[in-house]
Amino acid sequence: MEDPTTTVLLLLALAGLTAGFVDAVVGGGGLIQLPALLLGLPQAAPVQVLATNKLASICGTTVSSATYFRRVRPDPRTFLPLMALAFVGSALGALVASQVPREAFEPIVLVALVLVGSYVALRPKLGESTALRFTGHRHTAAALLTGLVVGFYDGVLGPGTGSFFVVALVALLGYGFLEASAKARMANWATNLAALAVFVPQGAVLWKVGLLMGAANLVGGYVGARTAVARGSSFVRVFFLLVVAAFVVRLGGEVAGLW
């Protein structure tokens, strides 16, 4: 594969910066980064695009996770089992990633985003504050199930993973949006690490592009996490709805063949 031009690299870096910010606040940065990589690297194999996206993403999720951990202090009794099963699910998904066509997932992701966005929009009080729905082992089991299912999806494809983590933690477990975002970033970090553990030995990562986008993603992730912590759950909720709406339009256009 030919090296991308300077212009392409700069545009990919901009995509990484934007994706890092969005991902840190509500997740879904992959829905920005993956299309950018597909457009900027048309000769790259799908598995190379997925692997390079994971390298860029883990840079942002590392700094945003650390920022949330210091400022929100999420409960380790939830985020540790969530991360553990997210890691396992992502590794399993990455093992089959090269065998699953992206086209098979776009309609499913589109429907899921419409349902998720509608659910949050129609429940204005949802996620304003933390009101846990389960306690003890039931809470842990719900966190484990969330980590495994969303983690597997992230390993196979990935776009929208952070948003799915957020809405599951809010709607299923009962967390406020800010605390859900904090836990989602940590789980997303684990899924990125697991996928890279599979992709790197395969030689699938395009390191030059991935590290450049990763540096930009890191900056975006730091700014996004600081912004979310400063603005609180109400800001995260509104930003979540705007991002989901934008992703529905973009994916809906692709499924309908408009672009």
If you had to describe this structure to a student in words, what would you say it looks like?
It is a single chain. The chain is an all-alpha fold. The radius of gyration is 17 Å and the shape is globular. The protein has helices at 6-25, 30-40, 46-72, 76-96, 106-121, 136-156, 161-173, 177-199, 207-231, 233-256. It is a multi-pass membrane protein. One of its GO terms (cellular component) is plasma membrane.
List the helices and strands and how they pair.
Blueprint: H1 6-25, H2 30-40, H3 46-72, H4 76-96, H5 106-121, H6 136-156, H7 161-173, H8 177-199, H9 207-231, H10 233-256
Question: Key terms for this structure?
Answer:
259 residues, mainly alpha, 78% helix, globular
Structural class: mainly alpha
Mean pLDDT: 89
- The number of helices is 10
Number of domains: 1
Number of E-type strands: 0
Overall shape: it is globular
Largest sheet: none
The portion of residues forming beta strands comes to: under 5%
- Low-pLDDT runs of 5+ residues are none
Ends distance: 25 Å
The helix/strand order is: HHHHHHHHHH
The level of helicity is: over 70%
Radius of gyration over C-alpha positions, nearest whole angstrom: 17 Å
Characterize this entry briefly.
This protein is mainly alpha-helical and 259 residues long. It has one domain (6-256). Helices cover 78% and strands 0% of the residues.
